[in-house]
UniProtKB/TrEMBL annotation:
It comes from Zasmidium cellare ATCC 36951. Pfam families: APH. Residues 66-263 form the Aminoglycoside phosphotransferase domain. This is Aminoglycoside phosphotransferase domain-containing protein. InterPro entries: AGP_Transferase, Aminoglycoside_PTrfase, Kinase-like_dom_sf.
Length: 338
């Protein structure tokens, strides 16, 4: 966030070889880590209902809260792009540090050792407001529309942050990405998901998906300015809202951020009617924009299918994702033949 009312230490980075653990951090250990990181004597610890990465809300005696997120159990099946999420988020938050034009949490601590929680972990914040998934049932249709419109404005602000090259967000003092085109970056993301599917022997039209990606490479390369995009950000459990004015006050997880095309965010996968009012428009201006959007729907639906097969207990509708995947491939095939 841009306003911080509590004194906290500068970000602490500890890099050692990490070993995975199946042990879930106990609240006492999390509380001791939080007390030290947040420099306060009293911190309430609450487990958050999130996906595969374990997360805890850290609530000092104030209106603000922080989030501690750590790696999942060693028994959890991670996809290729999920392996380095905590490190990616640490780099992203460091890159965005000091910006006053964005509601971005601060990186409080990033610990890549397995001590003292049995897992590497990251603490970010502060956040002010409520997690949308926890208050959504009590909000009116009008309030939810206002929040969706505010989310559109938030994504537009992120898109105004530009980077040096397409691909991963690199450390501030690190080398720049070698990805020179958006088509190569997209192909790499898509291939990662496809290989995860092949590894799990999931029934999918792999050759046809790769072929359609190659055929429409030229429309991807019409994107020449790398912008900040969070690929997976639209989940209600990832959005913090101010229920006094029904606006977005923060995003909990920046771990899927890349330099790319803003329209690839999953916010455009199934947008509400109010979201484009905040962002400005939907990507339907011409055939090239629509083609790119079919490719992005292809990516997100493919990822949803693969993720659900890897971890069936997570929220998700594989059949709906397969229908979207089929529809996107059909549209891309029609464009190719046209």
């Amino acid at each position: 966030m841009t306003a911080v009312l509590e004194p906290v230490s500068p970000p602490v980075f500890r890099f050692k070889k990490m070993a995975s653990s199946s042990r879930s951090p106990d609240r006492g250990s999390v509380q001791q880590v939080a007390i030290k990181a947040l420099q306060t004597r009293n911190v309430k610890v609450e487990r958050l209902d999130r996906s595969v990465f374990r997360a805890f809300r850290l609530q000092p005696l104030s209106d603000f809260f922080y989030v501690l997120r750590c790696r999942p159990s060693s028994h959890a099946r991670l996809l290729r792009h999920e392996e380095e999420r905590l490190q990616t988020e640490a780099i992203v938050l460091q890159t965005l540090r000091g910006r006053t034009d964005l509601l971005v949490p601060r990186l409080i601590e990033y610990n890549k050792t397995i001590m003292p929680l049995g897992s590497q972990y990251l603490i970010n914040g502060p956040f002010k407001g409520s997690i949308l998934s926890e208050v959504e049932p009590d909000l009116s249709t009008q309030a939810l529309a206002s929040i969706d419109k505010s989310l559109g404005r938030y994504v537009r602000q992120l898109a105004q942050v530009t980077g040096p090259a397409f691909g991963a967000v690199r450390p501030l003092n690190g080398s720049s990405s070698t990805t020179t085109t958006w088509s190569r970056c997209f192909a790499s993301l898509l291939e990662s998901a496809l290989r995860d599917g092949e590894d799990a022997l999931i029934s999918l039209p792999y050759d046809f998906i790769r072929d359609q990606s190659r055929r429409h490479r030229a429309v991807l390369d019409q994107i020449t300015q790398p912008s900040l995009v969070i690929l997976e950000m639209s989940a209600d459990k990832n959005i913090v809202v101010d229920t006094n004015n029904n606006t977005v006050s923060g995003i909990l997880d920046f771990s899927t951020a890349i330099w790319g095309d803003p329209f690839m965010s999953d916010c455009f996968y199934q947008p509400s009617a109010s979201f484009p009012e905040g962002f400005g428009r939907l990507p339907i201006r011409d055939t090239s924009e629509r083609t790119r959007q079919y490719l992005y729907v292809l990516y997100h639906s493919l990822l949803a299918v693969v993720r659900q097969c890897y971890r069936p207990s997570e929220d998700g509708d594989e059949l709906a994702a397969r229908r979207k995947l089929t529809a996107a491939l059909t549209q891309l095939g029609n464009i190719s033949r046209g």
